[in-house]
């Protein structure tokens, strides 16, 4: 049987609630960082935990070790996509609730995972407080996550 990520029927409102719930959250390793926030969004919208193998880190050093172990954030995303048959798509085709990777200039990591917001021309990455919006044109890779 092929594993797939199926979003709940009311996922658009759940996506909005997820984004709003973190609008004032401070950046925090393992809680509100790019990797866990993307995985938490998928968990909220589908019940599937893509972070099950690495959830529990709480420091930058632990995050660095996880990135080294998996070969970077895009490899983590590709691993989850392969496991759940999430199709890699061209970034301009990404829609709300999909995941993308973007080049990051404000972080020691060169690439971050971002969620496609309710406005599909924008992607969101955890920031010092809440979210930082980037245009979808900043995306390097994209994955169609939920059905």
Give a structural overview.
By secondary structure, the protein is α+β, with helices and mostly antiparallel strands. The chain has a single domain, classed as endopeptidase domain like (from Nostoc punctiforme) (endopeptidase fold (from Nostoc punctiforme)), CATH 3.90.1720. 31% of the residues lie in helices and 20% in strands. It contains four helices and six strands. The chain has a six-stranded antiparallel beta sheet with strand order 1-6-2-3-4-5, with helices on one face. A hairpin with a 5-residue loop joins strand 3 and strand 4. Helix 1 packs antiparallel against helix 2.
Number of strands: 6
User: What value does the average pLDDT take?
Assistant: 92
How many domains would you count in the coordinates? Answer: 1
Which strand order does the major sheet show?
A: 1-6-2-3-4-5
| CATH domain class name | Alpha Beta
Largest sheet: 6 strands, antiparallel
- CATH topology: the name is endopeptidase fold (from Nostoc punctiforme)
Spans of 5+ residues with little confidence (pLDDT < 50)? Answer: none
N-to-C span: 16 Å
CATH architecture: Alpha-Beta Complex
Give the radius of gyration: 14 Å
Q: What is the succession of H and E elements?
A: HHHHEEEEEE
Q: How would you sum up the global shape?
A: globular
**What's the number of helices?**
4
- Sheet/helix structural class: alpha+beta
**Roughly what fraction of the amino acids lie in strands?**
15-25%
CATH superfamily: endopeptidase domain like (from Nostoc punctiforme)
């Amino acid at each position: 049987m092929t594993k797939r990520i199926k979003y709940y029927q009311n996922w658009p409102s759940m996506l909005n609630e997820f984004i709003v719930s973190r609008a004032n959250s401070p950046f925090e390793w393992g809680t509100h960082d790019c990797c866990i926030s993307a995985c938490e969004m998928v968990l909220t919208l589908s019940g599937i935990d893509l972070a099950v193998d690495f959830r529990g880190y709480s420091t930058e050093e632990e995050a660095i070790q996880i990135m080294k172990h998996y070969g970077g954030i895009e490899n983590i995303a590709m691993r989850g996509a392969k496991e759940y048959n999430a199709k890699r798509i061209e970034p301009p085709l990404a829609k709300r609730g999909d995941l993308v990777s973007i080049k990051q200039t404000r972080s020691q990591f060169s690439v971050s995972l971002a969620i496609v917001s309710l406005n599909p021309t924008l992607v969101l990455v955890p920031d010092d407080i809440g979210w930082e919006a980037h245009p979808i044109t900043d995306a390097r890779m994209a994955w169609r996550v939920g059905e």
